[in-house]
Each structure stands twice: as C-alpha cells, then as structure tokens.
C-alpha cells in the first residue's frame, strides 16, 4: 500500500514493520538545565521517526540504554536496533543519554545503584520535555512509553512507579536535592517495556496501574528474574501483576543470561553475533505485540 510517497508493507501499524526505514535526528537536548558541560552532554536524545509518515499524534517510546549506570550510550547497538524497528512500526522513538555514576563505583553495589537516582530524574525530565513539545514531534502526549534494557529498564520502572522521596530513601541518598527536585511522584506513562531490569520495591507497583511487559533470560545472574539484593526482576514483577489483576505479560528466554547472552561478558560486548541480534529482535516483537493491544 502507498502512504504519501512511501511504500508500506501490509500489516498492522504499531505491530508490524510497515515502513522501509526510519529517519534519525541526532543529539537534541531534552533538558534546559545546562549547569555543566557534563549535563549538556548527558541530556541528549536521538529521534527516530517512520520515513515519510504522514500520521501525527503518534505514540512515543523513550528508550534508555543499559550499562549499570556507568557505561553505555543511546547509540548502543540494541538501542539503535529497537529504536529503528519500532519507528518502522509507526512509533516515534527517542533514545536518550542520561547522567551516570563514576566508573569507580562499579564494584560497590550500594554506590552503583545510587547512580540510578539522577538517571531516574532525567527519565522524568525527558517525559516532561516530550509532553511539552508533542506537537513539534507529532506525538500523542497521552501515549508515552518508557522502555529500556538492564539499567535503562530499571530507570523506566522506578520512574513509572516510585516517587522521588521514596526512591531516594530506598537508595539511601543523603542529599537528593543535590541531583534535582525531590517532589516528583510517579511519572504518568502508558506502559513500561522492561528488558531484563528490575524494581527496587515490589510494592511500588501498587502506586500506578501502568502495564509492564517484561523479557528476561532464565539464567540471568546480573539482574535476577526473582529477588536478589533488594531488586525484583521480571518474574517477580509479573507475579505481583497477576496478584494485582493487571494485564502485564512476560517472555522468558530459557537458558540465556543477561542481555540474552548465553554467557554474559560486559567487557567487551559482542552485539554483532547473529544469535544475540535475533533474540533482541524477538524480544522487540514480543513487546510490540503487547503494546499494539494497548493502542
């Protein structure tokens, strides 16, 4: 079928790959706070839109990369893959960078997760920015989805279900005001895509009715699918959702670990392997099927 000057495949918008490619606008700021060069660099996004799409008022997915809050980029291979393929389904996708902790905290779990706090504030800011500029980007401010893998998924979950005060208390942040406002409540979004991430307090799921679609590997030792070190993974989230009678869904990749690797090794990552890419695409399709039912 033809839409404008672009040839579209047959299928269902938001579920199937309809557009032949996505257009990308890079390194755009989403935060007005430019108090430091580091913040100016951190608070940037790349925007992916369906090529020659004439539809406006589209859902937006904000994608947040993993990396334990100390590594990673909005241009990681998996983030680019999901941003492009979801844009080809008809979404607008914003892949964001965010403030991260120091690499010296990598081997201190307590300090590592504290870096989640400013990252969550950045996720909230990104949602505010796109709601304020919805007309400019052709998006529906009432259909914004937070999505991410690993640390990015943790950001999405904490932003959607916790308020800043309880998050700061949970992470034992001594001076939360030093990172920004402490008064924000849960960020109102349409859904959360949780790729092998977790929430810090399972009872926060009661704060909002936001649906969550989770994907994880059954042998994930980085973010345990159940409960480990005060983090509740995809399995625990899904079980709590069932108890709350919510429409969440979950997909498990049996025999695989973190990031859907057979044997996860973050130094270095090998995202170019065909099997890993295939599993990332499969995870994306599962999330797309779930989101299409909501839309």
Please state the second-level CATH architecture.
3-Layer(aba) Sandwich
CATH homologous superfamily designation:
Alpha/Beta hydrolase fold, catalytic domain
Average pLDDT, rounded to a whole number, is 91
The first-level CATH class name: Alpha Beta
Q: Return the structural class.
A: alpha/beta
Percent of sequence in beta strands = 15-25%
Query: How does the major sheet shape up?
Result: 8 strands, mixed
**Share in helix:** 25-40%
Number of strands: 12
Distance between the termini: 22 Å
Anisotropy-based shape: globular
Question: What do you see in this structure?
Answer:
The chain has 295 residues and is an alpha/beta fold. The protein has a single domain (2-294), classed as Alpha/Beta hydrolase fold, catalytic domain (Rossmann fold). It contains 9 helices and 12 strands. The strands form 3 sheets. Strands 3-4-6-5-7-8-9-12 form an 8-stranded mixed β-sheet, with helices on both faces. It is globular. The relative contact order is 0.12. The model is unreliable at 1-7 (pLDDT under 50). Residues 46-200 form the BD-FAE-like domain.
């Amino acid at each position: 079928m033809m839409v404008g000057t672009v040839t579209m495949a047959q299928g269902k918008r938001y579920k199937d790959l309809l557009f032949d490619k996505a257009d990308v606008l890079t390194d755009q700021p989403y935060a007005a706070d430019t108090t430091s060069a580091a913040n100016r660099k951190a608070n940037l996004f790349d925007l992916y839109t369906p090529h020659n799409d004439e539809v406006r008022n589209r859902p937006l997915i904000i994608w947040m990369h993993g990396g334990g809050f100390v590594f990673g980029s909005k241009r990681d291979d998996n983030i680019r893959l999901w941003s492009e393929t979801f844009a080809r389904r008809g979404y607008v996708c914003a892949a964001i960078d965010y403030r991260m902790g120091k690499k010296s905290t990598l081997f201190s779990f307590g300090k590592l997760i504290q870096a989640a706090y400013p990252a969550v504030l950045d996720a909230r800011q990104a949602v505010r920015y796109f709601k304020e500029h919805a007309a400019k980007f052709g998006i529906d401010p009432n259909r914004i989805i937070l999505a991410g893998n690993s640390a990015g998924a943790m950001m999405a979950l904490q932003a959607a279900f916790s308020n800043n005060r309880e998050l700061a208390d949970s992470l034992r942040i001594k001076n939360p005001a030093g990172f920004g406002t402490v008064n924000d409540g849960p960020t109102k979004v349409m859904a959360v895509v949780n790729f092998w991430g977790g929430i810090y307090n399972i009872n926060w799921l009661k704060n909002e009715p936001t649906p969550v679609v989770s994907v994880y590997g059954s042998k994930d030792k980085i973010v345990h699918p159940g409960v480990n070190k005060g983090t509740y993974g995809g399995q625990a989230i899904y079980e709590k959702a069932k108890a709350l009678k919510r429409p969440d869904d979950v997909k498990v990749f049996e025999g695989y670990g973190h990031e859907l690797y057979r044997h996860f090794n973050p130094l270095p990552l090998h995202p170019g392997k065909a099997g890993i890419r295939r599993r990332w695409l499969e995870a994306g399709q599962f999330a797309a099927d779930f989101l299409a039912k909501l839309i």
